[in-house]
Structures are given as structure tokens and as C-alpha cells.
Amino acid sequence: MTTEQLISEIHKKKSFLCIGLDVDLNKIPSFLLEKEDPIFEFNKAIIDATHHLCVAYKPNTAFYEAYGIKGWKALKRTIEYINTNHPEIFTIADAKRGDIGNTSTMYAKAFFKDLAFDSVTVAPYMGKDSVEPFLAFDNKHTILLALTSNKGAFDFQTKEVQNKEVYKQVLETSKSWHNSENLMYVVGATKAEYLADIRTIVPSSFLLVPGVGAQGGNLQDVCKYGMNDSVGLLINSSRGIIYASSGKDFAEASANKALELQQQMAKEL
Amino acid sequence: MTTEQLISEIHKKKSFLCIGLDVDLNKIPSFLLEKEDPIFEFNKAIIDATHHLCVAYKPNTAFYEAYGIKGWKALKRTIEYINTNHPEIFTIADAKRGDIGNTSTMYAKAFFKDLAFDSVTVAPYMGKDSVEPFLAFDNKHTILLALTSNKGAFDFQTKEVQNKEVYKQVLETSKSWHNSENLMYVVGATKAEYLADIRTIVPSSFLLVPGVGAQGGNLQDVCKYGMNDSVGLLINSSRGIIYASSGKDFAEASANKALELQQQMAKEL
User: Fold this and answer.
1) What's the confidence (pLDDT) of residue B203?
2) How much is the ipTM here?
């Protein structure tokens, strides 16, 4: 998917909501556990109930890998279901990968070719030659971790290097990489006040913003400091939406939560 | 596996060799492609030919994920084959994972429980709460990226933060994390001269050293600067061993290459 198509969808749906499909079998409604593929059944119900309210889905691969081959099969069925029924929706493999050059190419093939995601999250620690193999794919997007939403972000990301924090170095340096127009960045909503500074470094890039809802980030603040002329934001909510109810009405409850966020977003556009 | 068991194996085999099982279907002998599971068949042959010469096997997950579900099945068969036939061998999932707390727990389950690896490589960018969930598992080891073997290591890892390079901050800071005795570190052989400094920060930790062979690192230099009283080194070779021949004799050729390295290691012990 091109960035222009994503922006067009945002305006059509009046939404820049991304829904995180982080399926934990201990949290989904218990009646689903009797099904042959409870992970996929849960995702399918959530997607059927929310696809008109969001512009992106983001399965975090950890939740699938934890269930072994069964989990990977459910991930593949989920992405195929989205790509077949809702090809207009931007898909993010939240995988936080990154390795030396030829190995990153294998990861890129896994997520862009085998699973056919539109984008993948990548960790920057190993530098340029660990990220460029992802950037080499046309109309695929690499979402680089910049400033994450967790406490541990203060361990290294916010430390100063030559009078500039590590996460700012990551933003700055990555702009010079080959095909850097395919980059987006992860910036946690729990650190909304940092967004103004971030926008001076990457004014036009899309930012994927986790941490609204369960982690405590505030939607209005994120928009105030992070929105640009092309919107430039994908705001993710996972647990706050998908676990809105653990009863038979879980899909309807998730749609209600998604609608709340979509309505707040419509006001910001 | 405990660290003591690993050290005992090193002395028994006079080897601290780790073999990287990075299977690329474009590089393995073509006659294997006719088999139902060529990835596993290749690994099985390499393991059968080399298990007496090495103390660790390290499949890099990228090479398996690139082949989708077929790849994950081959990874599972490979680790099960090692654990069943050679339980004395230390196993490393080279996965370079890392995410916010509850998500890292899911990754830890994937590699320590579902796949039953002894250890997993983890990226430090997201800090303490992204690594501690891995450290919580008894007799399992978390191998943190410190200074990697690629060029991109100079993009961020060697930049100075408060008069100390980022990778040294990672080493230093990680020592204060809960269950830090379960930590090992990745230090590239291409940067052997850095090992003396690294040993002043983590004198007793095991270091996993990739980059000997194909990437140009030198075994003697790594031992000179990196070895400690308990050896403290696992030196990895992947392509240099497993792709020693593309003919029918590939397993024998890999054993010859492994033997060369093992003999050099025996001299260093």
C-alpha cells in the first residue's frame, strides 16, 4: 500500500485508528476456546465488527509465536483474512526485528512476501545495514522504533549522545538511509510532550503511536503535538479495544470502544 | 542448562564452538530440495556430522520465518532433534527479540517453553522492562546484543553517552537488572580489540562471538582479549561451516571445517 492510499483511507473513514490484535488465550472469551482455531476466530470477530472504524490492524508476533506452529497458522489466516476482505486496510506486523544485512532480508521476505503485510516494526540498535534490507521493498513500510511507550525507554533511548538523545540520533541518522521515504517511526503516546521535538526532525513521516488507553497515553495531546498536514499519525489501541468484554458480546463491545476513539479522532481531523 | 554444565562440556570436548544453523534453500545442496523437509534434513546431517566438535547450535530464526509455517515446523523439528539426541548441547535461538513487558513474556514462552531452547538473543533498545521477562526463567539464558559484528554497529552502539559508548552503557546498566546472572552478551569477533575493555565491565559473563570466518573475525584475537577463567566464550561460525561444500559430501565437509576450528580452540584452552 502507498502512503497516499493510507492518507486517503484516513480521510474517508475519519479515523487514524490502528487496532492491535494481541491475542492472549487467557483473556479471550472462554467459549471460543472450544473452537478449532480460537485465535483466528477471535480476530475474525473483532475484524468483522471494527473494520469500518479503523485504518490499520497490528498483530504483535509475540502473541502468535507463544503458541508455536498453531499460533503462526492463526497469524497467517488472520493476515489473509484482512488482505482478502479488507485490502484497503494497512497491516502492520509488530515484530521488532533487526539483524545483519542478509538476515534482515530473510525477515523482510517473511513479513512482506510470505505473510504479505504492508509494514513491519524494526529495532534500530544494529544500525543502517540492519534496516536498509527492509527499506528495499516497494510500497512496503518499515516502522523504526524511536521512542517507545515503556519505562525502559529511559534506560538508553533518552540518554544524550553529543548533546542529542539516542532516539533523536536514530530519527536523524535514519533519514540518510537508502529508501528512507519508506520509513515510519514508533513514538509512544505516554511521551506525547516529546512529539513537538520529534516533528522538527521528521515533519512529514507517519508516526505509529502505541500506549493510548491501557498504558495511559492521551489522544488529544498526541494530536496536538504530533499531527501534520497529512495527518501523519496512526494511533494504536490493543487491550482497551479487544478485551472490552469477555462475554458473548465481546465483538460488539470492541466496536463500541473503537467507535469512541474514532469519534474523538474525527473531531481532530 | 546451567552455566556450569556448559563449562563442563567445553572442557570435555575441548571446544567452545557454536555452529549457526542459518539454512538458505538457495545455498544447500540441490539434491536435498527433493526431500519433504529439506531444511530439517540439511540440519540433521550437519548435526550428525558435527555434534562431537561443538558445544552449541544457533539457528537464526529469520531463516526459518522466511519459509513461513514450513520453516517454523523445520525449526521445531531441529530443536527437538538436538534436545532428544544431544541434550548436552547448549541451544541458542538467535531471534533478537524485545518488546514491552507482557509481550516479552510471550516471546520468552515461545523460545523457552514451546521450542525449549536454552537461550535466546535479545535486543536492548527498549531497556530493562523489555529484558527482565526473559531473565525470569530458571536455567535459561538471555544473550543481550552489546556490540554487534556488522558495520551498522558504528551508527549507534559506539556513540558516546556521558563519556561512555552506548554498548558499554548497555553492559553496565544490564548488570543491575533482576536475575542478571542469566545474562550473556553478543560481541562481534570483527571488533576483537574492544574485548579487553568489555572484560573490565563483565569479567565473568559468557560472550557469544559471531563474525569469525565469513565476516573476517580472528579466533586468536578473540581468545587473547576475551577469554576468562571459565573460558567465557562461545565462538560462532555459520556459513563457513555449513556451506563448506554444496555437493553430496556437504556434511563431511562441514565436519572438516568444524574440526579445524575445534583444533584451534583446543590450543587456546
Assistant:
1) 98
2) 0.96
